[in-house]
Amino acid sequence: MAEVRLEHLSKRFGETTVLPDVSLTIRDGEFFTIVGPSGCGKSTLLQLLAGLDRPTSGRILFDGVDVTALEPRERDVALVFQSYALYPHMTVRENLAFPLRVTKRKAGFDRPYIDGEVLRVAGLLGLEPLLDRWPRELSGGQRQRVALGRALIRQPRLFLLDEPLSNLDAQLRAVMRAELRRLHDRLGTTMIYVTHDQTEAMTLADRLAVLDRGVVQQIGPPQALYDQPSNLFVAQFLGHPAINTFEGEVRAGRLHMGTMELPLSAMKGGNRLRDGMRVTVGIRPEHVRVMPGHRSDAVPQEAVAQISGVVRLLECTGSQTWGIAEVDRSSDAIMVIGAVPAGESLRPGHPVTVYFTRGPHHLFYIDTGMRLEGA
Length: 375
Description:
It contains nine helices and 20 strands. By secondary structure, it is of the alpha+beta class. It folds into two domains: 4-229, 3-Layer(aba) Sandwich (Rossmann fold); 244-365, CATH 2.40.50.140.
């Protein structure tokens, strides 16, 4: 296990700066996730940690020891790739044994020890029936488990996982997420997991860092970042469906957003707003209801505002249906995403009433995108 500390780490390729200045600490034994859109610098950061590339400036420390100049083999880390990277001419047994075979002279590993370790790791990952198969005979999920096993068998101080589940189908990804979390809880090894999938990040992480254009936007437990995003980017990146965002102006104690308006009392930090102020308001879809027509008997008890519109798209996720409604028929149409209550029947084109319930809604400065103090 290892504590990892990055101190003012930067990476440039010619005139292009990928990581301007990254400083963060990953605790010993933590499952830490780095999440962000494609091209934000996640994989570059992981390669610097593995020693596959060198930073332009800054330091990398493992348990307080500077490893910035060390070669990959000297860092005692294991890297699991997106592409599995199994040896096609070796069986599963031979793939698992390979990391120990190549180090047996230096470490003093004999054949019985290596065979025992292969069986131990195979048992952890449910690979015993597959030990004599070739990689071409395995499914995607089985190959990924072999790749994980090949990393586990070395018992490294640090695991680095570079989008290891992105090649799997949705159902298998869910299974493998649970498997990864179970392994971490059992082994207690520090794991750093890179992904663009915010569902994976929030499901797996003890803490996560949101990265955008090489800059760390916020670090913390997943639920804390969802409930208290430090800026508009974090609010928009985390959560599915995505948060509703509207630009608004305060007039006469209400926040006006086109043809919509909300009482300031419905928002945390609303008492800090003054007439004439312009802000961006973020409203999570779970705090919006999309309901057929206008029925007085169907008004949600917690509703604080409402507006008429037309439903344009319905997204059914099984247990929940989300409605995307157009609530402003001007040239700049405003679209709102909200929950369709169970039992309600809607089709695209139907008239609806959109109800906003009491927060927590999020307020951001229009010019900087930062969260309004106290909101």
